[in-house]
Amino acid sequence: MEKQISKAVISRLPRYYRYLGELMEDGVERISSNELSQRMHVTASQIRQDLNNFGGFGQQGYGYNVKFLYTEIAKILGIDRQHNLIIIGAGNLGQAIANYANFEKRGFVIKGMFDINPRLIGLVVRGIEIRGVEDLEQFIIENEVQMAALTIPKTKAPEIADRVIRAGVKGIWNFAHVDLNVPDDVVVENVHLSESLMRLCYRVCSMQDGKSGEKGAS
Question: Which pLDDT band holds residue 215 (cuts at 50, 70, 90)?
């Protein structure tokens, strides 16, 4: 039976990948778990535990080969291969995603953008023409699209999600403020910007209240 990796470990892998990429840019060839922990503010023990889930990759007394570990984490995350992505919702957020060039460096190729607003259809964003949603399913099939980003109102999201799933999409990056009911073989990654901002607000307010002596007893 395949080993189940915790969500907490998976959530840290992109951080490891980013820091290792920065180390490579700085010309660092190897690094110990202690040195990596100081950069990432994660304990060395946690780093070793996380990486041991996938085989370890380190050598006693040597540490980690930065380039090798960077490549292996890319394989684990699946970003060592190309993933075709579409964006549904070509407003400000959708266009901002399309304009973010770093996605291509990570293997995510934006194949198309879609919207229902006639004023947006036909516009070109970073070389991608915005289309209407009429030929959505055909486009997904012809371009072997595996993932869809939904940057649309929550009232439209369930219907559009059903359409892209029926056409073969297996991963949905959901920016709509609604929980989607999807089959077991489809994965949804929810990005709730307002919830993230509220968590930030809570942490800022907690710190301020604590310093001013107004924080309630726990």
Answer: very low
Give the other-Cβ count within 10 Å of 181's Cβ.
10
List the alpha helices (DSSP H) in 66-180: 66-77, 92-98, 102-105, 136-142, 157-166
Compute CA distances 181 → 157, 162, 187, 193, whole Å. 11, 9, 10, 20
**Is 214 a residue whose pLDDT tops 70?**
no
- Domains, the chain, in order of start with CATH, read 7-77 (1.10.10.10), 83-194 (3.40.50.720)
What's the mean pLDDT in 23-38? 93
Q: What are phi and psi for residue 66, nearest 5 degrees?
A: -60, -50
**CA angle (111 as vertex; 101, 84 as ends), nearest 5:** 90
Residue 69 CB: number of other CB atoms within 10 A? 22
pTM of the model: 0.84
Q: Which of 166, 164, 169 is nearest to 146 (CA)?
A: 169
Burial of 202 (0-12, 13-18, 19+ CB in 10 A): exposed
3-class secondary-structure state, position 87: strand
